[in-house]
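Sequence in, structure out.
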Amino acid sequence: MLDIFLFQVLVGIYLGFFLWMISSGLSLIFGVGKIVNFAHGSLYMLGSYFLNTCLIWGFMGVKFGREYYWLSLIVGSLIVMAIGIAIERFLIKPLYYQPPETVILLTFGLAIFFDDFVKFVWGPRYSVGSPPFGFEQTILIFNRPFPIFNFLIIIFGGLTFIFLQFAIKKTRWGMIFRAVSSDREMASALGVNIDKVSFEVFAIGTFLAAFSGGLAAAVRTVMPGMGSSVLLDSFAALIIGGLGSIKGALIGSLIIGLTSSLGVYFFPTFDLPVQFAVVAIILLLRPGGLFK
């Protein structure tokens, strides 16, 4: 019984770090612009689709093939980042000082648009990914197979957290980021280029979403609407940790991952209710989130 529990904990940690890769970008974007970006899940979805497109068709006449998974992952993420930058510059930027519900309606509309966009461009077909060369194997942990690629996602998640924490706490850019997150108007009055910071943060957040989608394409089913469920979990993670907190996004993601993993095993019929019951309990005890 103990080995089953420990294995499910490991699965929960993997799910948590995978969710963290997505929610980190969402947290960055909210921290600077106070934007509730409902299109974030769609950018994650586009990351999966563009990765598959690069694997099959290549880029600029160069056919990558499955052995070039990592190159396809970077190229696909950069393409989606360019789309995210265009969204921020031409659609969201004019609305920064409008009521919050204006941006919510815009990003919600973009999410619907991108769901139909992938159906139009790639069709309604589902595709099941497979890990890149060298990472197809599994290893036995507690007498159960655990994919090596899942360990890689945990490593990516950990490195992303270390990088973001260093960038925010130890660099001049991070000091500016913290200032804008704390008081956008005061930072602007002190000479901070708010537009530049918003641009940079949205680009980073979009890249993280697309990169996560590319990783997902190797282990999950790629299909229209696949961003909706991860978006819901990402918002739950941010609410648990505290909106705009990077550390909170990580802890919230791990709580959601562990709750999902243990809930599926011990309460399979009530998996989702258990997950959001945990969210409700935390909010009753800490209404602003754990790190707010």
